[in-house]
Every structure is written in C-alpha cells, then in structure tokens.
Amino acid sequence: MSVIYTPKGKAREYSPYACNIYMGCNHGCKYCYGPGISRKTKEQFLIIELRRNFLHNFELDCKKIYNLQSQVLFCFMTDPYNSLENEMELTRESLKIALRYKIPISILTKSNLVLRDIDIIKQFKSNISIGMTLTCDNEKDSKEWEPEAATPGQRIEVLKKFHDAGVKTWASFEPVILPEQSLSMMVKAINYVDLFKVGKINNYEGLDKKIDWNDFLIKSVEYLRSKNKDFYIKHDLRQFTKGYKLYGNELNMDEFINKWE
Ligand code: SF4
C-alpha cells in the first residue's frame, strides 16, 4: 500500500509529494479539516492510530520515487510530531529512510518535539526544510485555537534553533485567524525564517467573511519585501489583490521546493 502520494487541489501548493505518518492528531486545532476528510468526529480524530506496516511501505515508496529527487512533505493530515511520536518514533525512522534514499523532505509541524531529531535533520544538509505553522501571537489565544500544540514562543524558538544550526526554515501563515496576530508573528519570526508562505482561513464559521484580506495581503507583502525575504502568496489569498501587483517567485511555489542537491 502506497503511503507517499501526490496532493490534490490546494494542498499541491505545498509540495509535489506528501506522506501522513499517522492517522489522527491530538493537537485539537479548532479549524482542523482532518476530521471532515477522514469522516471522523473531532473526538475520534484526536485518537492517533498507527498505519499498518508503515515503515515498510514508506521504504518501498522511497525506492519508487528515488530518481525523481522531488520533495515529500510530512504531513498534511496529522502532525508528524504529535504525542504518539514521542514513543513510536516513526517520523524519526522515516527521516532515516528518506536520508538513505536521498528523498528531499519538508516538515510542517506545531510541535517542539522536532528538535529531538536535529541530529538526523542536519545530515540532510540543504535537502530538508523545517516548517512551523504560525497563527496566534499569545498563549491564551493559542491554547484556545490549538490546545495541545506548542506555544507561539516555543514555535519561534524551534525556528531559531534550526536556523542557528544552518537548517533551512519556513513558516506557514495558514490559517490566518486574527490578521494582526499573524503579522505580529511574522515580525517575531523574521530573523529565523527563510521562506514565508502566506494564505488565509477558509470556510470557518463565517470568520473569513469578516476579514479585510486585501489589507492583510498588502501589509504582509510590504513587510516581507522590506526585509528582503522569500515569500509565496497562496492562491486563496491572491484572489484579494484588487490590482495590487505580485511578482515572480511570490507566485511560484515550485521555485521553493527542495530537490536533492
Ligand atoms: S496540527 Fe494539523 S492535523 Fe493536527 S489538529 Fe492541528 S490542523 Fe489538525
């Protein structure tokens, strides 16, 4: 059974390949689309399940895509560093396999457990990037929206540690729940993040209808340009340019995808 797959639709903006190492996630983010996609209740989705023969199947898939040198993202439908990873170490083992087969990896997490694997991650050299989702800028709101995930301060600290260790970093600004808090997190992360991906929130209890997305887009772009940072504006947010110009790699995610060097 294949465990590495080609993401469809909006998810493709993140990576040509992806892999969900676990089923379910205990971070409990209010806006999580995982329960809907996996046809589970929110409570059922909080229980993390193992995939049968995962590591064996992952290695078979790595053999198949070995020649493509194209990036695999960990993970869309769970956090690769959820609470079960502490004990099972499947993400850690997957990294070792990917390294052996020279598969470039992009990690997206909200957990500081990723620091545990810095020894393996450094061995990838430029063929890996560590991403954090940045949303709220304070613990109170963060606990309300993403109860079991790392606090905003811990996430910035993770990015700083990887950046200081010479590992490529990225930050996902999606979802954007409170635009002023996302902008504040951009400022906090600016010195430790190599690539910013900026989106919005979609279809969450009408919240997206109340936000001035054009204002958020312009403020984000002007700030990131002023700091000479690489960034990518996601397709959903781009619908709100109202004539405001975006250029080159601000629109082309493929320029930022890891390829084995
Ligand atoms: S970290 Fe991702 S998969 Fe886990 S609950 Fe939050 S949004 Fe869902």
Structural notes for this entry:
With 261 residues, the protein is α/β, with parallel strands linked by helices. The protein has a single domain (4-254), classed as pyruvate-formate lyase- activating enzyme. The chain has helices at residues 34-37, 42-46, 54-65, 85-88, 90-100, 118-123, 139-145, 152-164, 179-189, 213-226, 235-238, and strands at 4-5, 17-19, 72-74, 105-109, 128-133, 168-173, 195-198, 230-233. Strands 1-2-3-4-5-6-7-8 form an eight-stranded mixed β-sheet. Helix 10 (213-226) links the parallel strand 7 and strand 8. Helix 3 (54-65) runs parallel beside helix 5 (90-100) and helix 9 (179-189) runs parallel beside helix 10. The two termini are 29 Å apart. The model has no long low-confidence stretch (mean pLDDT 95). The chain binds iron/sulfur cluster. Residues 25, 27-29, 32, 34, 78-79, 110 line the site of iron/sulfur cluster. Iron/sulfur cluster binds at residues 25, 27-29, 32, 34, 78-79, 110.
Q: What is the CA–CA distance across the termini?
A: 29 Å
Supply the helix-strand structural class.
alpha/beta
Q: What is the residue-mean pLDDT, rounded to a whole number?
A: 95
Strand order of the largest sheet: 1-2-3-4-5-6-7-8
| Low confidence ranges | none
- Strand % is 5-15%
Any idea how many domains? Answer: 1
Which architecture would the CATH scheme give at its second level?
Answer: Alpha-Beta Horseshoe
Characterize the largest beta sheet: strand count, sense, and whether it forms a barrel.
Answer: 8 strands, mixed
Succession of helices and strands: EEHHHEHHEHEHHEHEHEH
**What ligands can be seen in this structure?**
iron/sulfur cluster
Look up the CATH topology: pyruvate-formate lyase- activating enzyme
CATH C-level class: Alpha Beta
Number of continuous helical runs: 11
